[in-house]
Amino acid sequence: MNPSDRPGDRPGDRPGDRLGDRPGDRLGDRPGDRPIDRPIEEILRDLQERAKELECLYQIEELLLDTDSPLTEVFTRVARVIPMGWQFPLVCRARIVYRGESYAEPGFEAATSGQVAPIRLRDETVGRVEVHYTQTLPKADEGPFLKEERRLINSIAERIGLFLVHRDLGEAMAGLETARRTPGPAEEAPWLIILDFLKRTDQVLLLRIARKMANHLAWNGVGDALQLLQGTFPLGQFERQPTGEENQPLERTKPTDSLRIADETFAIAAHHLTEDEIVHLIQKWIKEDKSRFLVNTIESRDSSLVEVRDALEKYRAMGPEMIELTPAVEKGVLVSLIHAFCTDQVEFINTAKRFVRIRDFFPVIDRTIFPPKSHGKLGGKSAGLFLAMAVLREVRERNPALGRIKSPKTWYITSDGVLEFIRYNSLEDVYNQKYVDIDQVRQEYPHIIQLFKNSRFTSDILDGLSVVLDDLEGRPIIVRSSSLLEDRYGAAFSGKYKSLFLANTGTKQERLAGLTDAIAEVYASTFGPDPIEYRAERGLIDVYEEMGVMIQEVVGSRVGPYFLPSFAGVAFSHNEFRWSSRIKRDDGLVRMVPGLGTRAVDRLRDDYPMLLAPGQPGLRVNVTPDEVLRYSPKKVDAINLESGNFETIDVSDLLRKHGEEYPLIRSMVTTWERGMLREPVGFGPDFEKDDLVVTFDGLFRRTDLVSTMRSLLKVLEEAMGSPVDIEFAHDGTDLYLVQCRPQSNAGDSVAASIPREIPDERIVFSANRYVSNGRMPGITHIVYVDPGRYNDLSTLDEMRQVGRAVGRLNGLLPRRCFILMGPGRWGSRGDIRLGVNVTYSDINNTAMLVEIAKKKGSYVPDLSFGTHFFQDLVESSIRYLPLYPDDPGIRFDDAFLARSPSILSNLLPEYAHLDEVVRVIDVPAVSNGRVLRILMNADLDEALGYLSSPRADATDAVGPAVHGEDTPEQHWRWRLHFAERIAAELDPDRFGVVAFYVLGSTKNATAGPGSDIDLILHVRCSPEQRRELDGWLEGWSRCLSEVNFLRTGYRTTGGLLDVHFLTDDDIERKTSFAVKIGAITDPAREIPLKRRGG
Amino acid sequence: MSNKSYNSFEMAQAQFDRVADILQLDQATREFLRVPMREFSFSIPVRMDDGMTQIFRGFRVQHNDARGPNKGGIRFHPQETVDTVRALAMWMTWKCSVVDIPLGGGKGGVICDPHNLSLREQEQICRGWVRNMANDVGPLADVPAPDVMTNAQHMLWMLDEFEAIRRGKFPGFITGKPVGMGGSLGRTEATGFGVIFTLREALRDRGIKPADAPASVQGFGNVAQYAIRLYNQLGGKVVCVSCWDQNDQISYSYRKATGVDLDQLLGITDKFGGIDREKARGLGYEILPGDDWLTQDVVVLIPAAIENQITGENVHQIKKTVRVIAEGANGPTTPDADRVIQEREIFMIPDFLANAGGVTCSYFEQVQCNMNYFWEKDEVLGKLDVKMTSAYHAVADLARKRNLYMRDAAYVIAVSRVVEACKGRGWI
User: Fold this and answer.
1) Partner-chain contact A581 B116, CB within 8 Å
2) Quick count: other Cβ atoms within 10 Å of Cβ A855?
């Protein structure tokens, strides 16, 4: 609220301090209300009017202080006084209407047009104040009335409302007092007093409670209550209209009817419940009622974010003292909030509701920018981080180190912002981009970026962004995409959409331009080739992609002209890249660099992030001082605050000049001296002279970073119920969590057994380093980029052509039936001599990516490490295998790969000149119909690719992975299966069974490990037969209970079957379970019985 | 070297047999020297970080200590074989003998991969090794040193364990320690300087002044850099240097006819001896293909990078101007190339002798430790000069007198010194 709207805040405006003076506040003259240079007489007349108004209010105030006189008298007197406040009191008449009764001076006649103000009692309109002129008068602000008079009448109506509350309260309190003072057993039960109180003060609430009581009773099988509900209970009619319509006369309600029903309900309740129970229930419902506004708004899917925000803000303003949510309501509201802000995904909601609290959303709404009428969400990245921080807060008692982890200040633009942006700029044609041929997408994408950057944002968003810039002033910012598809379970759109850094320096106008530019670019990235390709592949192309945006402050500090975190990186709770057999999968993996985390996330050409397995911190990738030196990070990504650019700089240069300013640096570097690495001690190191190597040794050895990282990954993995992938940064003081999402995982991969008897001549390659699990039984094509010849290419352009040829082959060859083999690092972005220059969309159809590390001199080239690209492979179940042909004991059939006939020139005549470099081998064609079979076993660290008959593959193709424990899917499946077995075994003639039904969780496929099997048997049997049937079913029941125990460990008492018997009579009368047969909702399902006599 | 398909011990024995033939050694002497005098093999149980116990295999081969305490490295390697270690121990005997330092030959190690071990576990292995060997090693018996995948840190752990067991300070027990912790100054310069000391003598023998003998160097690592420095100090110039380019993954040769300016090049060189190509071009260096160092019109070639660089295929590209080759690296010349060089009468200073500066300096480290008095760098390098020079002349004299190829002469002199010591002791 704008404070300048409240003239009453100025002390001089207050006519007095008594209750009831407040209405007068509204009459205060506001500076600027009227032109200053008015004629003096006009001012005098105004003052006169004002004096009249005040006089009128004083008198009414006096009258309303009288709580003893009957209502009729008080109201009639007030009606008499009201006209004196109006401009023409002599021809002015007033009346008060309250609950249908009219109070006025005798002879009052309503004119056709008058001034009306509603009288409200606890948000309910209970009556109105009317002012009429008895003759036609010149037009003023509102008909003949002045706008000051509108204020006055509203004040009077409000004052009368207060008076009514006060009066009701007084009566009720008096009643309560009387009840208390009555000696001995109370004549009236305490709950009756409450009801009485409500009757006087808040009938609407009373009726709601009555309805709830009726429901409650019916629920518990009280027939009378059911009848009451079916019959006359007023449904909804007592619900007040929330807003508006206040100038219309109210429809006449029938309070007496409603109240009678309420009384009846409670009479029934008194019959069936104890006093304590009733009081308890009433208390609970009254409490819940206070939060109705919150529940109604938030749980309604129609509520826009504005409404949700307003409801939340009201809730926040009321505070926990005013409004207490019952656990059930709280959970409901929470789930709806998670739904509204985060995601529809059940897994996420299930996790989030365990950790997130309603008040966690307060800071989020404060920092969310959204278009009007938005129903957008924050997007996956934002939601993931939000949830992770809630988890960390929950565990901070047990693990204070995790409690100290912070998250950077973040603003959000909801996901429909992009839609609004597109609409506002009429860019709708871009939606069809996802159905366009990928080559065309690639061509057009640069234009789309430009188009988006030259488009405009709505003023709503611009206003919001302006606030963001004020809030984040002086800090560089990062604009991250947070799309709804991104980071969803099982589909990591890692790196597919953009994240952009901004120095955020310059004038506000410049900063705003930079920010909008970045957001437009992030928006445009939705329509880039990689995301579209990726979505097409995962069957997500038709899903409406909305893009939320996160605007985060960059974690870090200033070092010289640069801004950067001391260190940053990514971490995975599952280590899919193990450099030692001693490192277990759940030992995790951290990739860490000095400066911005971009260098840990992206693949690097000439530099290395520090790798660490937090579960085995002692086992380092690099052991000898030479290795440590060679594979230490040499460069730093930072934001240059002076130029405003994102820059990559040499660590050694940075430290030489600004080492002293760099927070934590002493724990990050080791001095390199005559082949020895030494940890700096005392005042060391000497930044100007010493040769420094970034090893992070001090951090790893002397701080709790490793253990914090380890428990962070563990805790998040446990909470999310799946391995996680996080990004972090450290500003020298605090560790920040920047991102958290589920780690894609290769759960479908099973270790293949490696055959030992394959003759050498059939082996194409073997491997014994860094092997993961998997098997590809029927590879028909090999795309082999000859390492030697690739290296011999004389121009970079030719090398790029190799990448393009591979991309084209990727589109031509049978999906997942070919493998790509090539030198060094696939996907090199910088120096493409290190490996073929491809992006993910150029290789996404391959079954496997093989990197060949052929010795060059004494040097073995580095192969690619785990990166976003690597994750893509894992995501798409594309296997990765490094080959070291020069290792002892390794077979690598150079002749087969380099000399078998190649079909490249048939497939792509335009690339025929690369025939020697890129070879496409049609395996069956060159090997008598054999195919290449690849078996990989991570436990043995061995892999074998050999030629094998395709027939062998058909026979031992593996099914899906076998899981040790039952999935939820299986609980109902086997139950239903057994229900069918029982029906098939059951002899209808012997037991007199007519029909057999299954219902409940088994039928609905919702059975859990402890669920029973609900059956309905329609019987026509003698008592003798029934006894036999009982015995027969009992046997099944116990047996199944045992089966369930063996499967799940759940012990169900008294068997697993819950059998309900129905007779013809039951079915006739539709009693009890008979309603389930042929019911419209949730009917029981009939299962055929053993054929009679069969 | 250990991964060659041939058996390295058999190869070392064959080499010895050839020399024994030249020396016409008797059968007992041959038998005695063909195999190590002593071999130790033992288990080292280590409690791992995860609480499990793992057993590592450790060993030490002492080939011959007739001339003095055994000297040789300790290597950590997962695919170590005892034959490799035997061969290396034998080579140590000859290497110490050729520079005439009073040490025998040894080698040892543990079968393990430090990549699979935490530092604490590696420390336990080092200490376990010493506990097993404490009675059979020591400053006066057998002196270990760093080798494959071991470094100064491992040496300090071993020293500490040894001193704890022997109850005293014995810095001479082990070499390769950091300066200030019993290490010797001059260690960094020793090998490169040693190459040039022998080269200087070889040129003097041929009446060539360094100023008139431009050199071409392969490699720009530690050895090459100090070799160039000393050669410049002697008035010689190096006109071409080749080195590996990490970014391009190939090597380039950098040529400057007026001679390379070492300090200028070092200013644009990373820690691995990689020269910044663009900056070099800017400084007026010609950038040539990596192999071009060999084909320069120079008098001296110094291969100081890696093995197998001068081969049967490229040996013919060596210009006629070349008079001397000094092998700074280990095994840079293949046997077929070696024969061509011998035929062309290019003077060869074999690796064995030329790069013995390193082991000599280790000896100095041990000597300084034993007297607990450490020399200034000049003193170390001065003594190194004396040792290398006299070693060179002994070999060169023998080669001249007996008309032997330098490589053979070096072997002959090394073996005969050991034989003399054994006989003198009355062993054989």
Assistant:
1) yes
2) 12
B268 touches chain A (CB under 8 A): no
Sign of CA dihedral B306, B310, B314, B319: positive
Closest by Cα among B90, B186, B104, B95 to B144? B104
pLDDT tens string B225-270: 999 999 999 999 999 999 887 666 578 999 999 999 999 999 998 7
Decide if B89 contacts B105 (C-beta within 8 A). Answer: yes
**Tokens 């998040």 -> residue:** A716
Tell me which residues of chain A have a C-beta less than 8 Å from any C-beta of chain B.
Answer: 579-582, 605-606, 616-621, 623-625, 629-630, 672-676, 691, 831, 833-834, 856-859, 861, 888
Please state, in angstroms and as integers, the Cα–Cα distance from residue B117 to each residue in A572, A619, B46, B144, B329, following that order: 22, 6, 11, 21, 31
Residue from the list A618, A630, A831 with its beta carbon closest to the beta carbon of B49: A618
Terminal CA-CA length for chain A: 81
Q: pLDDT-based confidence at A139, cuts 50/70/90?
A: confident
Average pLDDT score, chain B: 92
DSSP run (H or E) holding B58: strand B53-64
Handedness of CA A120, A124, A127, A128 (dihedral sign): positive
Token pair listed for A691: 């040769």
Dump pLDDT digits (tens) for A639-674. 999 998 899 999 999 999 999 999 999 999 999 887
> Chain A within 8 Å of B208 (Cβ-Cβ)?
no
Q: Nearest-CA residue of chain B relative to A634? A: B270
Q: Which of B117, B249, B271 sits opposite A861 (nearest CB)?
A: B249
Q: pTM of the prediction?
A: 0.65
Residues of chain B with Cβ-Cβ distance to A833 below 8 Å are 248-249
A536-552 mean pLDDT? 77
d(Cα A490, Cα A274) in Å, to the nearest integer?
Answer: 53
Q: Which of A836, A831, A834 is nearest to A801 (CA)?
A: A836
User: For testing the chain B interface, which of A674, A697, A768, A828 should be mutated: the one with the most B CBs within 10 Å?
Assistant: A674
Q: Edge-to-edge strand order for the sheet containing A562-564?
A: A557-559, A562-564, A635-640, A645-650
Domains defined along chain B, listed by start: 37-173 (3.40.50.10860), 187-354 (3.40.50.720)
Highest mean pLDDT (candidates A716-730, A973-987, B15-29): B15-29
- Give the model's pLDDT for residue A429: 83
Q: Which residue of B has its CA nearest to A607?
A: B247
For chain B, helix (H) and strand (E) counts, in that order, are: 14, 12
| C-alpha to C-alpha distance for A752 and A775, rounded to whole angstroms | 6
What distance in Å separates residue A624's CA from the closest CA in chain B? Answer: 6
- ipTM given for this complex: 0.76
Q: Which long-range contacts (CB under 8 A, 24 or more apart) does A235-242 make?
A: A238/A203, A238/A204, A238/A207, A238/A208, A239/A204, A240/A123, A240/A124, A240/A125, A240/A204, A241/A125
Residues 370-389, chain B, touching A (beta carbon < 8 A): none
CA torsion sign, B152 to B156 to B158 to B159?
A: positive
> Does residue A944 register a pLDDT over 90?
yes
Strands A735-742 and A724-730: antiparallel
Q: Is the pLDDT of residue B379 over 80?
A: yes
| Cα distance between residue B287 and residue B267, in whole Å | 17
- Nearest-angstrom CA–CA distance, B17 and B11: 10
| pLDDT band (50, 70, 90) for residue B172 | very high
Give the Å distances, CA to CA, from A384 to A347, A487, A552, A727, B60.
12, 8, 14, 11, 57
| Residue A535 clears pLDDT 70, i.e. is over it | yes
Q: Which of A342, A327, A191, A313 is nearest to A262 (CA)?
A: A191
Q: How far is CA A770 from CA A577, A579, A784, B390, in A?
A: 7, 7, 21, 51
